[in-house]
Prior knowledge:
Layout: E1 5-8, H1 13-29, E2 33-39, H2 51-72, E3 78-84, H3 87-96, E4 100-107, E5 114-115, H4 118-126, E6 131-135, E7 148-152, H5 161-174, E8 178-184, H6 194-203, H7 206-224, E9 230-236, H8 239-245, E10 250-257, E11 260-262, E12 265-267, H9 270-278, E13 283-287
Parallel strand pairs: 1-2, 1-4, 2-3, 4-6, 7-8, 7-10, 8-9, 10-13
Antiparallel strand pairs: 4-5, 6-13, 11-12
Helix pairs in contact: 3-4, 8-9
Amino acid sequence: MTRPITAGVDGTEESHAALDWAAREAVRRRLPLRVVHAWRHEAHEAAGGDRETQRAWVSDGVTAAVRAVTARCPDLAVSVDVVEGGPVEVLLAAAAGAELLALGSRGHGRVVGFLLGSVGQQVIAEAARPVVLVRAGDRPAAEAAGREVVVGQQGGAQDSAAALKFAFETAAARGATVRVVRAWTLPPVFAYSPGSLKLLDESGGMAPFERKALAEAVRPLRERFPDVPVAEQVEMGSAAQVLLSVAGHAQLMVVGRRAHRTAVGARIGSVAHGVLHHADCPVAVVPHD
Length: 289
């Protein structure tokens, strides 16, 4: 089954940027583009009349946005779905059948980064497929040669497998370099087990151990994508800080996500949360397999 690149639109400048980004990605990957808009009938006069009148008004707005995209990408296959329902439910359903879901997010520079509303937070935390956040100021020039696809790697070889796969697939479609970043910190001495101490001794210390772990995680992707240039980076520090230190050279930042459920709903991990709030490039959040 061919999965489309899907964009969620709501009429804002941010969602139009996400739509443009999704269209370019669909062209690169030779996939169809699906545009989804969630709406609810407002039963009061100021909202524009009966259900069908409102639906037609909403559809006209979405069609106008799509028309601008098809004018730039005339060979792109595009479908439009205006779905009545709550935005979280509609977007999660759309993401389930998509290669990825692109959403707009407000941003005001590197300090503030992405401002995630409750809809974006829930969709990112619960989506079964990758979700890409795109800010209003994103432009095609940001995807120019020399800018990398940056991906965070942590844990063992399987822990970041989904994020690495997404990053390599994206870089292959763009002719870009993948920079794989692994951050590490010194744990308390009492946290070491005899087994872990032996592994560290055999590796020559923490830094060589971390470099070896990164190389082992990346090796299968190097073999699968031999034409994709790869840079491996291991640094001491928090994962979010190390990733953000190279965000200025990234055309896309990719982070993994393991959702944590609490009494008030799903929450994304601290690394994804930090990158989403401070990176100034599009950010892809990829759920672990």
